[in-house]
Amino acid sequence: MPAPRLRRVAVLILEGAKPLDVGIPAQVFTTRASMPYEVRVCGAAPGPVTGGDGLSYHVAHGPDELAWADIVFIPGYRFPDRDDPPEAVVDALTAAHARGTRLAAISTGAFALAATGLLDGRRATTHWHYTRALAAKYPLVRVDENVLFVDEGSVLTSAGAASGIDLCLHILRGDLGVAASNHAARRLVAAPYRSGGQAQYVPRSVPEPLGERFATTREWALRRLGEPLTLEALARHAAVSPRTFSRRFVEDTGYTPMQWVMRARVDMARELLERSQRSVERIAADVGLGTGANLRLHFQRILGTTPSEYRRTFARGG
């Protein structure tokens, strides 16, 4: 199998950049033998950049470096509703996108992306504390405050802080496949998959005592995807009624329990297609989908391709 092509990642640091938001893409896509990425850090100009939370940065490149990148990450920064990004940054982002570069905003980095006009008419999200401010400042953006991240193809946005990990793993999964994404998640000690439709964690007046119990049930289910998994069995493991389980599961993940199980099975099938030479029929049985026809049906519905074409894509190097 040929080596995947090298992908070039730029992390764009603006004044007041949040340290965690900067560190997530830098670490997920870190330059190493097992990761076909090269990461460069740039800013509105080369030199020192005052960050948020007491940290500062020294960047080697200015906005012209975005012309080099295949994907640009825009970390969140302080006072995004008050301070507009420099014109040179907006122009560089717009030009990069026109060349086919993907632009991915983490947290309040969505404000800088919205300043380009590229989010107009598209869904986007940001940190829950700033969703109303984003909608007020950029009324043409369809702000969704109830998700972890939004993938609009060439422009992507994520909610606050740790959801940047979910966005990066989502991008990695699309670039290199499920096996590479799961490997990176293990290295980060992060959840291997949280759907973009999962709700943000926002302050609630009533405690949510079932969160850990439901997470345990999801882990239990992931280890048994080849076995029959029904709503009743999942609810029984979580020690709640099926009705309560269904309602809370949608709140926690953005999917019904059976939609989540189906996507988990398709993801497991993707990894087996990437890493093994098992037949489609064998993989369908191993992941609990029964027949190759059933796997093909759900693969096409969820991913828009066939298992055979998916395997050929990764045989060509991703």
Descriptive overview:
With 318 residues, the protein is an alpha/beta fold. It contains 13 helices and ten strands. The strands form three sheets. The chain has a six-stranded mixed beta sheet with strand order 2-1-5-6-10-9, sandwiched between helices. The longest helix has 19 residues, at 257-275. The chain is globular.
Keywords:
single chain, 318 residues, alpha/beta, two-stranded antiparallel ribbon
Q: Could you name the ranges where pLDDT drops below 50 across 5 or more consecutive residues?
A: 196-209
The strand count comes to: 10
Structural class call reads: alpha/beta
Q: Please tell me what the overall shape is.
A: globular
Distance between the termini: 10 Å
Order of helices and strands: EHEEEEHEHEHEEEHHHHHHHHH
Helix content: 40-55%
Q: Main β-sheet, in a few words?
A: 6 strands, mixed
Proportion in β-strands: 5-15%
Query: Order of strands side by side in the largest beta sheet?
Result: 2-1-5-6-10-9
Map the helices and strands.
Elements (H helix, E strand, L loop, with lengths): L6 E7 L5 H10 L8 E7 L3 E4 L5 E4 L11 E4 L12 H12 L3 E4 L3 H6 L8 E2 L6 H7 L4 E2 L5 E3 L3 E4 L4 H14 L1 H11 L22 H12 L8 H8 L3 H12 L3 H19 L4 H7 L5 H12 L3 H9 L3
Parallel strand pairs: 1-2, 1-5, 5-6, 6-10, 7-8
Antiparallel strand pairs: 3-4, 9-10
TL;DR of this structure?
The protein is of the alpha/beta class. The protein has helices at residues 19-28, 87-98, 109-114, 131-137, 163-176, 178-188, 211-222, 231-238, 242-253, 257-275, 280-286, 292-303, 307-315, and strands spanning 7-13, 37-43, 47-50, 56-59, 71-74, 102-105, 123-124, 142-143, 149-151, 155-158.
